[in-house]
Every structure is written in structure tokens, then in C-alpha cells.
Amino acid sequence: MVKAINFFGTAGLIALLNFVLMVLFNTAFIEMSVLAGLIAIVFIRLFTSPSNYAKVNRPISISRTETVQFDEQKVYAYPALILYASFFYTLLFLILTIVTYYDYF
């Protein structure tokens, strides 16, 4: 259930970003979809990569205390699944854009 929420929540947030870009640039939804997907991929990858931006800016003492975990913790976010959802969204709308604008290629 948590994985489904992660996947569809990510797709929903990218669609919301897509809608904001659509209104901001006064274009069609499908025209901004690939751009929204690429922005999401870069943003998600920035925070989920092994040497990510969030870990680099933490003090060493905090980083050391958080890396050793003795208790089993519940997982509420699956970063790889979130990244795959953004890849899927971008690929899906890239295919839809190519199919829609096939006559212009």
C-alpha cells in the first residue's frame, strides 16, 4: 500500500507541476509534460543519489549518529520507486507527445 501511495503520489505531484507550468507558460498540458518529468527526475535524483545534496550539507556529527540504526524502522518512502515513477511519467508522456505531434516530425 505504501509503495502504491509513493508511486501514484509522485505521478500526481508531477502532474501538479505540469499543470503549474501549463498555466505559467499558457500552453497545452501535453506540451509541458516532458519538461515537468525531466525537472522531477533531476530534483528527485539530486536528493536520492548516494552522495546527495541533503547529506553533503549536514554536519559530520549528525551524519554519524544517523548512519548507525539499531532499531528496525518502518519505511514510508521508497526513493528508487519514486524515481522510477518519474521515469515512467516522463517516458509515457514522451511517447504521447510523439504520437500526438507525429505529423510535425
Number of self-contained structural domains: 1
- Helical element count? 5
| Share of helix, binned | over 70%
Mean pLDDT, to the nearest integer, reads 83
Helix-strand topology string: HHHHH
- Write down the Rg: 17 Å
Number of DSSP strand runs = 0
- The amount of beta strand, in percent, is under 5%
* Poorly predicted tracts of residues: none
Mass-distribution shape: elongated
* Main sheet: strands, sense, barrel: none
Distance between the termini: 41 Å
Keywords: Membrane, Transmembrane, Transmembrane helix
Protein name: DUF3899 domain-containing protein
Organism: Jeotgalibacillus proteolyticus
Transmembrane segments: 7-28, 34-54, 75-102
Could you explain the architecture of this structure?
- It is a single chain.
- The protein has 5 helices and no strands.
- With 105 residues, the protein is mostly helical.
- It has one domain.
- α1 crosses α5 and α2 runs antiparallel to α5.
- The longest helix has 24 residues.
- The model has no long low-confidence stretch (mean pLDDT 83).
- Keywords: Membrane, Transmembrane, Transmembrane helix.
- This is DUF3899 domain-containing protein.
Give a quick set of tags describing it:
5 helices, transmembrane
